[in-house]
Amino acid sequence: MATAALVYLARLAGTPIFDPNGDQVGRVRDAVARPRPGNAPPRVLGLVAEIGAWRRIFIPMGRVTSVDAGAVVLSTGQLNLRKFESRPGEILVLGELLDRRVTVRVEEGAAARGGEVTDVAMCRSPGIGDWELARIAVRERTGRLGRAHLNQFDWNEVTGLVAPTGQQGTQGLLSLVEAMRAADVATMMLDLPKRRRVELAAALEDVRLADVLEELPEHEQLEIIAALGRDRAADVLEEMEPDDAADLLAEMPVNERSELLDLMEPEEASPVRQLLKYVPGTAGGIMTSEPIILTPDTTIAEALALLREPKNSPAMAAQIFVCRPPSLTPTGRYLGMVHFQRLLREPPSDLIGSIVDRDIDPLDPGDDLTTVTRKMATYDLVALPVEVEGRLVGAVTVDDVLDHLLPTDWRDRAHD
């Protein structure tokens, strides 16, 4: 078998897919294979392609004219846009084989060696032209010190690839999602079997998992949080935005909610507890309690530097709320807001207190979603302040509004 014909799927993940005209239609995310009788290598049925946010489709290998780590080219631009769903007996190659613990025996009478799958290569089968899984890259643990050696084997030299196994490792999956956006990781997790989804979630760092959870449907969030264990779940909730953490906790039974809040650090749990007091579907129920707040004696240069911090979402970084100390909600007296475009037009040394917009009345925590939406549309803003007795208690952003205007299962529908 010529090694030049091998295509390694972990390396192929993320590769752009082009139609015959050279227009990109998506990216490779995985491959689908079906086992064959005996020890014959599984036949590769097609590729799982991501063609936009939240949508993954199946592209049969018969539609593929060329494939390598630089580009995948299709024979036609016509695609079946039906959501990809694996069928019984099929293998999601990267999702199910990567990190699988296997046994290798290459010589008659030699002792079996164990290791983990790090990549799977496919190639065209001789004569027929179909694609099949051909080579397995395995990280072997050898010697008393457990040193790792990376070796390649033919499919029939490795056992444990398709049989049910216990918990797999996650190093390969973590490498795949390292450079992906949180929303794309969430989409990938929805395609994985439940067991692998939970294993990947458990392996992610707290901050990364918090970002991914915010992109998942609520029932998937609850499933993952329940599988993490109470202490780890509390750590992840601390890393989530307070409004997202409050929305997730609101879906839990009261006793579980209270237990997790008690396990969180008091300074992290406090804003979440405050948000849980408001009625769902009101300005208070959908707001974030941590908008960007500065005092009026801050310079414009300092304000712009704060807006540039990567942790700020586009909606949150569109404006600054100006208040008297203290600057944590509930603040001192609320003075007004400053849009970032106004900051760009003023001398950097000026103080933001001199350019505060006081014309927009803040929302009340009890205002319903219709009131919030109308006011946001009227003033063409992406965030509005929420005030109680002259103090800023939070802000409603446009993404908060969209999350609550859309049907509760909108993430699931987008994935369909």
TrEMBL record:
Keyword annotations of the record: CBS domain
Family matches, as Pfam families: CBS, MgtE_N, SH3_actinomycetes
Signal peptide bounds: none
InterPro entries, per database record: CBS_dom (IPR000644), CBS_dom_sf (IPR046342), Mg_transptr_MgtE_intracell_dom (IPR006668), MgtE_N_sf (IPR038076), MgtE_transporter (IPR006669), PRC_barrel-like_sf (IPR011033), SH3_actinomycetes (IPR058838)
Cellular component aspect of the GO annotation: membrane
Domain CBS: 287-354, 356-413
GO MF term (any one): magnesium ion transmembrane transporter activity
Taxonomic superkingdom: Bacteria
Protein name: CBS domain-containing protein/sporulation protein YlmC with PRC-barrel domain
Organism whose genome encodes this protein: Phytomonospora endophytica
